[in-house]
Every structure is written in structure tokens, then in C-alpha cells.
Amino acid sequence: MRIAVVSGKGGAGKTTFTILLSDYLTNMNKRVLVADLDVEEPNVNLFFKKHLNYSDIDTYFPKHIQENCTYCKECAEKCLFNALIVAKDFWLAVPELCHSCKLCEHVCRFSAIVEDKRKIGEIGKSFENLPHLIEGQLNIGESLATALIERVKNEIDNIKDNYDFILMDAPPGTSCPAIETCKDADRIIVVAEDTPFGFSDFKVLSAMLKEIKKDFTLVINKFTDGHDFFEYAEENDIDIMGIIPFDKKIVEDYATGGKLKSNVNFEDILMYIYGDKN
User: Can you give the residue ranges of the 4Fe-4S ferredoxin-type domain (predicted)?
Assistant: First the structure.
């Protein structure tokens, strides 16, 4: 079962919750794989401290064959991402803008563009001691977070039958990387912080999940009174399955990479995971 842990903003506590849930399930003798899909800033392993074996991840990049090119500009004009610059006797592909769609190669009538590759990041894996861990790590300045998440998920597909649960720590927010993480999850757990900003971003995230037709349950982190969340949840038929109190000890453990502990009632979370809300 794939469980996506998501949040509307950074720092809401989804990584904290993912680690707590993985510990709980592992202690129940479940085989758990944690997938850190927050590829621009993966930090799950700050707490697991596993030795990861990394492999490079490449993506398509157009290569220019100068002797074949007429500099007609058709490839640049058809590029949806403005990744090509063409002028008289000048051709340039901009890596930061290229989305590896191969349209330029397809439209070129003179075989002046062929396939090349460039590295966009790495995938790290550790299969020693449960929970196991896989993470994507995007190159600094790279824009193709969604492409790397797809590659990590392809790796997961190859080994998914070895696990009872796959916990996917998603990128924050509501953009394409978060949607890519959520779209084929069996269960979605939203972690939101009990602040005005946290509540505002939670409502945006809630609307996004509704748009892609995904149900979810809510865990409130840094809990003080939760008034806005309880009211909104009642109005929109959202289940609140857990509360993590605003506890200085949790903050200290997180800051030092220590063993995280919380009094979350994971029995309610487990009922949601197994589809029993009663």
C-alpha cells in the first residue's frame, strides 16, 4: 500500500510524521519502505542515518548536429518551454528550461537534432535494516523535480511487492511535484501546522486534492487549539485522525536529528489506512 504524506507548505511536519509512522509500522513487524520524494531537499536520512548507495539519473537533452542545420528556427518556434535559441549560425539549448519532451528532434526535418543526455540528480537506496529507504536528490538549480520523482517511483514499482507499506514523503505545496506524488497513492495523509499560514495553505492543498479526486485524512501538527481546522473539517466532511502537540522536546529532537517521539494515536491512523473509519 502506498501512503503519501503531504503538506501545503514547508515546515508543516510531514517528514516528522512520516518518520513517526514508519517507526510505528516497523515496530508492528510490517515491512516498510520510506520514499523521500521531496527531491529538492530530502532530509529523511538525517534521522535514519543510513548509508545510501547512489546512482546518477539522466534525462533526454537535444544535441545539435551543426553540419545538418539550416538554422530555420522551426525547433525554437515549436518549443513550448522556450528552451532553444536559434539565430544565424547560432543554436543553443538551455538546460534549465528544457523539459526533455523531444519535440525539437521530432519537428527537425534535417536531422540536425539527435538524442543526448544530461544528469538531473541521483537516487539513493538503502536496504539494510527496516524501514528501508529510497530518496531522490535533484541537482542544485535543476527544474525537473517531477521527472526525478517519476524515476524514483519507477524504482519503487520494481520492488513494491516486497513491502506492506510504502510511505512517500511528498514535496510541499500544490504544484506538479506534489501532484505527481499523490496521483497514484492508495491513501493520503495531510499534515498541517496549527497556524494562520498553515491553515491557509491547508485549504489550498485541500482544494487541489479535491480537484484530482483524492480523499485524505488530516493530522494537525504544532497543535494549540485547532479551532479553524475543526470548523473547516466539519464543514467539509474531513476526518482529523491525529494531533501532534506543540512540544519543545519534539523541536529539539528534530533540530539535532535525534529519535523523534510523539503521543500521536496511530491506531486511528491505522484504521484510516485499512479503510475502517468506524
Answer: 60-89
| DSSP assigned state of 55 | E
Q: Which domains does the chain carry?
A: 2-57+122-273 (3.40.50.300), 66-111 (3.30.70.20)
Identify the three-state secondary structure at position 6: strand
215-261 pLDDT per residue, tens: 999 999 988 889 999 999 999 999 988 888 777 776 676 676 666 56
Cα distances (Å, whole numbers) of residue 55 to 51, 121, 149, 155: 13, 9, 14, 12
Give the Cα separation of 73 and 118 in Å (integer). 23
pLDDT digits (tens, 9 = 90+) for 117-144: 999 999 999 999 999 999 999 999 888 9
Bridge partners, residue 191, by sequence: 219
- Pick from 47, 53, 57: nearest CA to 125: 53
Residues 6+ away with beta carbon under 8 Å from 34: 18, 19, 22, 44, 48, 131, 132, 133, 134, 166, 167, 169
pTM: 0.86
